Amino acid sequence: MLGVGISVIRMEDAVELSDRLIRAGEKNYVCVTDVHGVIEAQSDESFRRILNNSYMTTPDGMPLVWVGKMQGYTKISRVYGPDYLIEMCRVSPQRGYRHFFFGGKPGVADLLARKLTARFPGLQVVGTYAPPFRPLTSCEEEDLESKVRQTKPDIFWVGIGSPKQERFMAKYCGRLEAKLMVGVGAAFDIHAGLVREAPQWLKKLGLQWLHRLAQEPRRLWKRYAICVPAFIWKIGLQFLGIRSASAEI
């Protein structure tokens, strides 16, 4: 939609495709994308290419699911980043997946690792890394590459917010010795217990953004004030045939 290729998948498909890539020993990345990501891609060609060159670009928000269904893709359903993280952790003890958590403020990734290993006995978390709020220096890059090379994670989770995390994955996928890189944004804070999750009924109505806005109004008001009206307008133009829906790689 609007030049961005959204994967027509359900949660079980996302888990199966992830398993397929890991077992094949390949390297790729997954973008978990909502309305904000689609709108960001409208004015940023490099970001649009990153989304469209991913292994999967999952429909993270209900509006993307609704538009997909309106276009005839009846089997599409929401693949929400925090839920995807939990589902991959759920199957990991049986499948032997090794996890690395990159992102969050100092201590958040460690707290997340402790909570998840307590929730899923047998879960292997082989590394955590709290990056600075700037690009990595060459020394920091070498340190990260060394840690990942030593720990050999199957899944490298990135929680530094969009579009920063997508750019990070596109740059480092192939350089880091990890098979699957996944950008999950706020999932670190949510599952570490630092941010309250929206109730299920609010998620189904597609109003989870209101819950997030209420928690972080100063940081998020501008994003939603721009993204929501822009998405409605541009999608309207797409359905009228004025805007193209096809993905641009």
Structure description:
The protein starts with 10 loop residues before the first helix and ends in a 10-residue tail after the last helix. The chain contains twelve helices and six strands. The model has no long low-confidence stretch (mean pLDDT 92). It has a single domain (11-200), classed as Rossmann fold. β3, α6 (108-119) and β4 (124-129) form a beta-alpha-beta unit. Strands 2-1-6-5-3-4 form a six-stranded parallel sheet, with helices on both faces. The radius of gyration is 18 Å and the shape is globular. The chain has 249 residues and is of the alpha/beta class. The protein has helices at residues 11-24, 35-43, 45-52, 62-70, 81-95, 108-119, 138-151, 164-172, 187-191, 200-204, 208-215, 217-239, and strands at 28-33, 56-59, 98-103, 124-129, 155-159, 180-183.
List keywords for this structure.
single chain, 249 residues, alpha/beta, Rossmann fold, 6-stranded parallel sheet, 12 helices, 6 strands
